[in-house]
Amino acid sequence: MHVDPLVVEREAEERAGVLSSPLQTRTPGSPSVTVEQLFRPAGGAEGRGLNVLLYGAVGTGKSTVVRKLVLDWCAGRTLSHFKLLVPFSCEDLGQLSKAASLRDLVSRKYRHLRKHPLLSGEDDQAKDVLFVFNGMEKMNLDFRIGATELCSDPDEALPPAVLVVNLLRKYLLPEASILVTTRLSALDRVPQKYVSRYAQICGFLDAERQRAYFSSRLLQRSGEPAGGREALIQLLYLNLQRESQLAAACFLPSYCWLTCATLHFLHFTDAKAPIRTLTGIYTGFLRLNFGGEVLGTGEGAAALQKQRGSLMLYVVRTLGKLAFDGVTNKRASFSEEELEQWIGGKTKTDEELRQLAMFRTDVLDFFLAPSVEGGGAEGRRYVFAVPAMQEYLAALYVVLGENKSALEKLSTQVSAAIGQAGEDVNVLVNILSKFIPLRLFAVFNLLKLFPKLFEKISSRSRGSIARTMAAEMFRTEDSHNEDVLDQVEQNLLGVHGPQPEQRGEAQPFELYPIFMGGLLHYGNRVLLQQLGCSIQSSTVAQITQALRKYLVRELSKPQPPEELMDLLVLLYEFQNPRVTAEVLASIRTINLPNIRMTPLKCFVLSSVLSCTPASYHLEGMNLSSCLLTHDMLQMLRPAFRHTRNLNLQYNSLGPESCVLLRDLLLDPLSPIRSLQLCDNPLLEAGACTLLEALPQNQSLTHLSLMHTGLGDRGALQLAERLRQHAGLLELNVAYNNIGDNAALALVDACREHPSIHTVHLYLNALSDGGKQTLYARGVPERQGGRRVKVLASVTEGADISEDWHPILSVILENASSWDRQRVQQQLKAFLRDLDWGRRQQQSVWKRLHFMRVERGVRKTLRMLEKDAPPPTSGFNQ
């Protein structure tokens, strides 16, 4: 499904206002027209084709409209009265240095049109031809008679610019129609007398067009459930309706594309799909809007490119500098005075003024937009169209070395000059050494030291880039923010529900160091090279070497889960397996509790750990309360192969997830020693599937199945499987609705087991007599026998259990998610056990100890009774 941008026909005199934003130039009630309507016959032009000039700002969809027009014409859906449509890229034509005739130019691009009769110029056959020239601003067209010779022969060889001028003059194939697209700055390059109609492409000015585009892009994949995608579109649409900053940016279809690409990356990452990174998306976005294909190369093309300079490099040196200043000072909005200072304050020459005028007309509104929050008494303020773009440009500004000091820039220039003349200096010294004294000869040898000296200064500069990346990654004031991927999502979808607590006034810029790492990847450097922004491999090597040292140093300190997740994203964006493995070698545990895991975050974690050798093992991986699902577990399986202690508590893993966990435990190379699955609805079927791995698994020593819906049958199955597994040390099956008989069978199996020393059975459906029996079964029958600690209550027979405090802590920690009525009943049973045990004691000190534990239980019970119990579920029952 294609969504057409708004196209409005303009009169020639209306061009005076087109240099401002399309949001300000749209005439109220202006009807939208199609390209086909623009080529309706015009009066007074009999025998001549129409010249239609379609103009618009960067990113409004000019190239997309042209591509759609060509496809529709090929399918016979539009402009069917033209028998031949010939599209050209003006950037391609501008790169050609050799003269060629019009027919040769067409046949070079489209071999099947060689010597086509409609292009012969005979009779009026050209009336059935439509030429399309996309991106006229990338050609130097001169309509002066003295500068561009006249040509009416389609077989005469001339420079491409001369052929285009004569086509527009209607001197060459006057019957042919022409569609030209251009940016605003080049609108007046074609004299008004050569234009039949003007049309402005305005993008998506209304929210309905934006929603239609998002729906077509996000729902285009077939074979996948559409429920999640539709919910995503609804959240996005609500954010657009609030007149957010995103809505102000998305009138440009290019930013709609960027939004969809980012949402696809955040929500629909697939392990089977090619690897994509956020930095790659933004680099590709800029390549899409500020780059193009190259048809041919040559000395003329190289000279032209050198003369023009790189527009993207100009963006980096102006807007990148502004973005860097904002990131450094934690500011996201800028006044008009600041824009003037950073963008045009120091221009002096005519060439600089020309570049600045073109930049302001074509590019400035693409990157900056008025803030929807307003500026108050300070006047209008401007922000980057999307927040992440500020951080990307700031990162590019730093990585390209544009923030060097004057000494560093001078040293680079001198070093390059001396380095280029190095061979000449050596030859000269060898000749003069025969005629000059040795003292003067030593002066010449000093010249050889300059390149090394300046290279040392340069390496210090690149080391400072790495130091900046590490410092920005681990800022103390950002340690309480959400992880960076959640921040990106909130910028696109907004915050629905309670607003997050603001811990500081400063704007967080946590994508900035991640973009710096991503820009060092080879794929992004290739795209930037095409945009005229070169990052040398030697520079990357020096930054990488210093970065590795700083990251290892920071990781020696404990990091909050959000900061650790950001580090994993940085390593993923970096896409350097060797550096990733060396950095991870300093990490022994990955603690990510309460991080809202998504398919992308799971893929990032697995991809990063896949860079390590097979011998690398984490001591622990904590993914508790991460909203994991079965599909996410599939993506995390490669990461689990590097983990000894795996914590998957408090997630949403069902019976189907146990198949994957069983296969993981059956893997002979599996290093997992401890597996915690508390508060996952595994149920009896899932637990039985998981237990199938026990006979063959030799690594597991601790297994927690607390509150997993095990039941009596699951407990009996576990008791039977324990005989076939010799390595287990501790077993937790608390809160599983296990009765007396099943609990007794399980304790008997644990007592016969060669290594199990502790079994957790509290919060189960045990009678008072059953608890006493369980405690007695855990005591060895003969002297020297092995004792199994049975934790069924806060008491052990007539004594206080030494684990009473951990039991109450577990209950209090999980009370919000457990069935409170059930927990309250168990706490009252604990009080009965304590009361009975206290009456059995003769010692005053022991009675006081019982009373102390009773106070702890009653305090926990009162805390639960303050709140109304939540609705119960079958799983809790």
CATH domain class name of one domain: Alpha Beta
Structural class: alpha/beta
**Low-confidence residue ranges:** 16-28, 292-308, 406-423, 447-451, 453-457, 868-877
Rg result:
36 Å
| Total beta-strand segments | 19
Let me know the average pLDDT: 82
Count the DSSP helices: 37
The percentage helix is 40-55%
The CATH superfamily of one domain is identified as P-loop containing nucleotide triphosphate hydrolases
How would a crystallographer describe the biggest sheet?
8 strands, parallel
CATH T-level fold name of one domain: Rossmann fold
Judging from the principal axes of the Cα atoms, what is the shape? elongated
Reading side by side through the largest sheet, how are the strands ordered?
Answer: 10-11-12-13-14-15-16-17
Ends apart, CA distance between termini: 49 Å
The proportion of residues in beta strands is: 5-15%
Can you name the CATH architecture of one domain? 3-Layer(aba) Sandwich
GO molecular function, one term: ATP binding
Family: Belongs to the NLRP family.
Keywords: ATP-binding, Cytoplasm, Nucleotide-binding, Repeat
Organism: Liparis tanakae (Tanaka's snailfish)
Describe this structure in words.
The protein is of the alpha/beta class. Among the domains are: 6-203, Rossmann fold (3-Layer(aba) Sandwich); 207-276, no CATH class; 299-470, no CATH class. 49% of the residues lie in helices and 9% in strands. It has 37 helices and 19 strands. The strands form 4 sheets. The chain has an 8-stranded parallel β-sheet. Helix 29 links the parallel strand 11 and strand 12 (643-647). Helix 25 runs parallel beside helix 27. The radius of gyration is 36 Å and the shape is elongated. The protein starts with 5 loop residues before the first strand and ends in an 11-residue tail after the last helix.
